[in-house]
Design a protein that fits this description.
Blueprint: E1 4-9, H1 13-24, E2 29-35, H2 38-47, E3 54-58, H3 66-76, E4 81-86, H4 91-99, E5 104-107, H5 112-125, H6 131-139, H7 160-170, H8 175-182, H9 186-200, H10 205-214
Parallel strand pairs: 1-2, 1-3, 3-4, 4-5
Helix pairs in contact: 4-6, 7-9, 7-10, 8-9, 9-10
């Protein structure tokens, strides 16, 4: 099994070192870089031969904050998945970070097991959503109706097959699992996913889930 390559950026020395030790203690994790600022992380990423799979980012940092760093990383390295670590549990922060390209959002005092699970899930499915995040995304919804518009407020139509795939994405199914359930190839599923990203204008898979919930295309049961 290939190890999940992880980088950490947090300006709090003790927290960062403790998190680094935790990461290094998990058998399928590999710590490839740690930094005390967004600027330092970007410099270290340029020097790496292989980019990290997942970056853990503190939202509140002097200089370049987590929101700004997330935007830069998503623009420069869209293949990197981002998990935000923060002391804030306000819903407005959560939905904003998901819209900005984050794949997951965790409170810093979360259990170690949840952090490990979140990293593994983000690597497998492209996003991790716990109850806190799901509720924030649901409450961020401003409109639910027959007309669906993309993030630029342009009317779009979601086909029946795209809706099916969107539903399974929200259920955190992998491309392989979706392909098996729909009796199609993984390439076909990936094509539909990419079409949805382009049609809706989302940055990543987590953005698709936010869009689905906000437009009543997936009922999370809250």
């Amino acid at each position: 099994m290939d190890k999940i390559r992880i980088s950490i950026v947090d300006d709090q020395h003790l927290f960062r070192k403790g998190l680094s030790a935790l990461i290094e203690g998990v058998s399928n994790f590999e710590l490839v870089a740690e930094a005390d600022s967004g600027k330092t992380l970007l410099e270290k990423l340029k020097a790496l031969n292989t980019l990290p799979d997942v970056v853990l980012i503190d939202m509140n940092m002097p200089g370049m904050n987590g929101i700004e760093l997330t935007g830069i990383l998503h623009s420069m390295y869209p293949e990197i998945k981002i998990i935000i670590l923060t002391v804030h549990d306000q819903e407005r922060f959560i939905s904003k970070m998901i819209q900005g390209g984050a794949s997951g959002y965790l409170i810093k005092n979360c259990e170690i097991d949840e952090l490990v699970h979140a990293i593994n899930t983000v690597q497998q499915t492209g996003f991790y959503l716990n109850d806190l995040t799901l509720k924030a995304m649901a409450n961020a919804s401003k409109y639910k109706g027959d007309k669906i518009t993309n993030i630029n407020n342009i009317p779009i139509e979601i086909t029946k097959r795209e809706h099916e795939i969107l539903q399974m994405i929200c259920m955190q199914c992998t491309n392989n699992e979706i392909a098996d359930k729909l009796f199609v190839s993984v390439r076909t599923v990936d094509g539909h996913r990419n079409n949805l990203l382009a049609k809706i204008g989302c940055r990543n898979t987590a953005g698709l889930v936010l869009f689905a919930i906000s437009n009543g295309l997936y009922d999370i049961g809250f």
